[in-house]
Amino acid sequence: MQALEVVLPGVVEPEGLRLRHRDLPSPAAGQVVVRVEAGGVSFAEQQMRRAKYYDQPAFPFVPGYDLVGTVAEVGPGVPADLVGRRFAALTKIGGWADHVLLPAADLVPVPAGVDPAEAESFVVNGITAWQMLHRVARVRAGQTVLVHGANGGVGSTLVQLARLAGATVIGTASPRNHDAVRALGAAPVDYRDPDLPRRVRDLAPGGVDAVFDHVGGPGIVDSYRLLAPRGTLVSYGTASTKNDQGSSRLPVLRLFARLLWWNALPNGHRAAFYNIWAGKRRRAAFQARLADDLGSVFALLAQGKLTAQVAARIPLAEVARAVRLAESGTVTGKVVLVP
């Protein structure tokens, strides 16, 4: 079987991404071949293109953090009835292709009748949002949370899940996206407003019970100061440094040091850094937790309780256009590649 895939050869503009065909080996024991129906363009790939992702592999490689597709072939030891069924997978790399070889244990079932692109928009975004909300911050009904980037893929999912949990949500976004944020059920605040902390305080005079911050940089201090007593700051990225020159690791290490210092303070606040791959060394437990959490998100999607935010569906062969759009900051939700 031949696979069409996208290769990231180095630090290039989106137009420097290359397409290639390669022979895909038959699946070995425990493996499957998945015919990809939808692959996401996430912030992780945007950082990898700049060599800014914390632990990305050496160039060249095939990007693609997550996907949804149908099993086309199974290897020895894998049930034959998986063929023809739709699954999602978290891949980290390798997903930007029309066929991929994956461990069968990494597959999470997609409910029947759910559109592949809509399911794709909730794979990495859904796992991230669900685990930050329920496993890290443990948000409860009646609480108030602040979501930075509320119009983005993770942000829009966080808003919806927090509202379903009974929380009040304040979401930062550019003014052009405020209507979309309101439609999701959050009170929008302009993220560029120099008085942003005061705007949030006007909406939550006692502070917020949780802040979800993917930006990092100096603004994370404001996020921490906005916490209510016993509130939790969940940091999950350093988007503010995406165009900086220099080490991709230094901003993350500085952030870790700051969070550790805050946790040492006797003020009752908690600061955590969320990493979707935490615990992967205990593979079976990691896979079970991932399947449970993504399964919960997919169930809400199938029940119509979550609305997929698919910004665009773009052919794999037009990957440069997809990356440009995803990086433009002008869309709500996730750009999806459709092989």
From TrEMBL:
<dbReference type="InterPro" id="IPR013154">
    <property type="entry name" value="ADH-like_N"/>
</dbReference>
<dbReference type="InterPro" id="IPR036291">
    <property type="entry name" value="NAD(P)-bd_dom_sf"/>
</dbReference>
<dbReference type="InterPro" id="IPR011032">
    <property type="entry name" value="GroES-like_sf"/>
</dbReference>
<dbReference type="InterPro" id="IPR020843">
    <property type="entry name" value="ER"/>
</dbReference>
<dbReference type="GO" id="GO:0016491">
    <property type="term" value="F:oxidoreductase activity"/>
</dbReference>
<dbReference type="Pfam" id="PF13602">
    <property type="entry name" value="ADH_zinc_N_2"/>
</dbReference>
<dbReference type="InterPro" id="IPR051397">
    <property type="entry name" value="Zn-ADH-like_protein"/>
</dbReference>
<feature type="domain" description="Enoyl reductase (ER)">
    <location>
        <begin position="10"/>
        <end position="337"/>
    </location>
</feature>
<protein>
    <submittedName>
        <fullName>Putative oxidoreductase</fullName>
    </submittedName>
</protein>
<dbReference type="Pfam" id="PF08240">
    <property type="entry name" value="ADH_N"/>
</dbReference>
